[in-house]
Amino acid sequence: MSTRKPLIAGNWKMNLNHLEAIALVQKLAFALNDKDFDRVEVAVLPPFTDLRSVQTLVDGDKLRIVYGAQDLSQHEGGAYTGEISGAMLAKLNCTYAVIGHSERRQYHREEDDLVNAKVRAAYRHSLTPILCVGEGLEVRQEGAHIAHSLGQLDGALRKITAEQAKSIVVAYEPVWAIGTGEVATPEDAQEVCGALRVRLAELYDTEVASAVRILYGGSVKSGNIAGIMAQPDVDGALVGGASIDAAEFTKICRFSDMPG
Ligand SMILES: O=C[C@H](O)COP(=O)(O)O
Prior knowledge:
- Belongs to the triosephosphate isomerase family.
- Pfam families: TIM.
- InterPro entries: Aldolase_TIM, TIM_sf, TrioseP_Isoase_bac/euk, Triosephosphate_isomerase, Triosephosphate_isomerase_AS.
- The protein contains 13 helices and 8 strands.
- By secondary structure, it is of the alpha/beta class.
- α3 links the parallel β2 (41-45) and β3 (66-69).
C-alpha cells in the first residue's frame, strides 16, 4: 500500500476571471470537508490573473485548498515581456507550477530543454513542478507512447538532484485524451504511469520512485475517476474541463465514493 497522498489538481486553463475564481474556490471550500482534505490533497491551478485573489481567500479563510500556476518563466527577471517569474509565484505562496503541459508544448513550441529550464527555475523558488508528459495520437498508434513519455521525463529531469526529484509531481496526459472525451482506459494509464515510476528508479533510486506522485490527466470525470485511481501507480489526476464545475470537481475529489 502506497503512502503517497493522492493529489487532485484542477487545471482551469484560460477560464474564469478573478471574481469567478473566488466564487469557485468558495464553492469548493463549502463542499469539501476536513475528512476530504485528510484523504486527498486538493489543488487549483487558475490563470495568473486570479492567483492573488485565490491567495487572499485561502489565507483569509484558512482553507486547506492549495494552489499553483499553469506555467512559469525559466528566467529570474528582467526584460521578458509577458513572462511571470518563479519568485513572483513564490511570493503569492503558490505550491505548484505546471510545466510542459501539452498545450504549451504544442502552441508555444516548448521543447524538453525549455521544460528542463523551467523545472530548475521552479526548484530555485521552492515551487513543486507538476511536470506533464504524454504522447499524441500518431505516437500512440505507432506503439511508441512509453518511449515518448520516458524521453520527455528524462529531458525534464536533467541536472535535477534526487532530493529535488523526490518532491516532483509527474502528470501523464495522453494528448489524444485531452478535452476530447476520449479517456484512456485505467490499464492505459497504469501502463505508462508504471513505466514512468520504473524510469524514476533507474534515473535515481527506489526511494525517489516510490515517493513521486504520478497523476493521470485527460477527460477525467466523476464517472471514470474511480477506475483510474484504482491503479497502483496512479496517485491522482490533473483535471481540465471538469475542474471548473464545483459539483463535478468535488465528486472527483471524493473518488473513493464513486463507482469503479
Ligand atoms: O491539464 C489537464 C488536461 O489537459 C486534461 O484536460 P481535460 O480534463 O479537459 O481533458
